Amino acid sequence: MSPSDARIGGKKNACMFPVPHTRSRSAACKILAGILVFLAAIPDLAAQSQTYDIFAKALAPFASAIFGGGSGQPGAMVAECLVTDATGPLAAANGTRFRLAVQAPDRLRVDVVRNGGKLTACRDGKELWAVPGAPMRALAQAAGFDLDKSAPDASSPPLIPIALDPQMLAFLPIVFDVKDKGSEGTPPLKILEFGLLRELREAIKAPEFSMRAWIGEDYKPARLAVITPDYSLDIAVEKLGFAAQLDPSAWQPAEGDQAVRLPASALNQLFEKMLGTKLP
Fold first, then answer.
1. Exposed/middle/buried for 33, CB within 10 Å: 0-12, 13-18, 19+?
2. Spatial contact of 112 and 272, defined as CB atoms under 8 Å apart
3. Closest C-alpha among 254, 261, 280 to residue 135
4. What's the Rg (C-alpha) of the chain?
5. Which residues of 57-95 are buried (b: 16+ CB within 10 A; e: fewer)?
6. pTM listed for this prediction
7. Mind listing the pLDDT tens digit for each residue in 214-245?
8. Which domains can be identified in the chain, with CATH numbers?
């Protein structure tokens, strides 16, 4: 998930361009401008080097799985998580487990487990399918989608709003304002608080958010907190893995499933309903 839609279930659509074009080049220029502003604002970048080194090492495999890394770098990730606290419209998500799978350039699957049942929504390029049919149809209607318009929407924006090649990914950490919040636990977890640089967030009109990550010695997050003006989520990362790619079957419904079909751009709103709505 992208900085412009880092809040889970956010209503603004995140998108990914598999190849550069005018809009992605414009966004990339804004990111580079943000980097220059950031560098000019910090007279002693060396004082921040250790914090940013930890952040960069933690971010790198995620960025590679989302944007597509170079040779030998992961192109996919799977995270199994537990929502340990939730407020606002997503308060019903407290105690919910979910599995998130991402594969560059344009695949994202969410499995939400609650009350012994599982809800799945999967974006595969410009197509979105969701199962089981009856509850997902109800959630889609609650989110305001016309189920008669189920064909892939050619205008659905890609998953991430910009295209970054592997060389540019090295600069990605410094578009964030990262603060060291100390350590806690045994073994100690480094706590980093981060969000997009204000100037960059305003330039690309990204929603306001901040995050905290509790990072282990292996540079993998054990816990994440997401804070927006509307809600907050506290998430325990129970399992995290990276791979070159996932099996193609991960992006298709099981044989016999009666899947609801929606435009790919519906995923974020549908995920919000999956987390925030109590179902029988």
1. middle
2. no
3. 280
4. 19
5. ebbbbbbbbbbbbeeebbbbbbbbbbbeebeeebeebee
6. 0.77
7. 999 999 999 999 999 999 999 999 999 999 99
8. 3-247+259-276 (2.50.20)
Higher pLDDT, 71 or 190: 190
Q: Note whether 58 and 176 are within 8 A (CB).
A: no
Q: How far apart are CA 123 and CA 255, in angstroms?
A: 17
Cα within 13 Å of Cα(108), Cβ side: 24
**End-to-end Cα spacing for the chain:** 29
Residues 83 and 233: their CA atoms lie apart, in Å, by 7
- Over 90: is that where the pLDDT of 184 sits? yes
Instruction: Please give the Cα distance from 230 to 75 (Å, whole number).
Output: 32
* Three-state helix/strand/coil letters over the chain: CCHHHCCCCCCCCCCECCCCCHHHHHHHHHHHHHHHHHHHHCCCHHHHHHHHHHHHHHHHHHHHHHHHCCCCCCCEEEEEEEEEEECHHHHHHCCCEEEEEEECCCEEEEEEEECCEEEEEEEECCEEEEECHHHHHHHHHHCCCCCCCCCCCCCCCCECCCCCCHHHHCCHHHHEEEEEEEEECCCCEEEEEEEECHHHHHHCCCCCCEEEEEECCCCCEEEEEEECCCCEEEEEEEEEEEECCCCHHHHCCCCCCCCEEEEHHHHHHHHHHHHHCCCC
Tell me the per-residue pLDDT of 26-51, one tens digit each, with 9 for 90 and over: 555 555 555 555 445 554 554 468 89
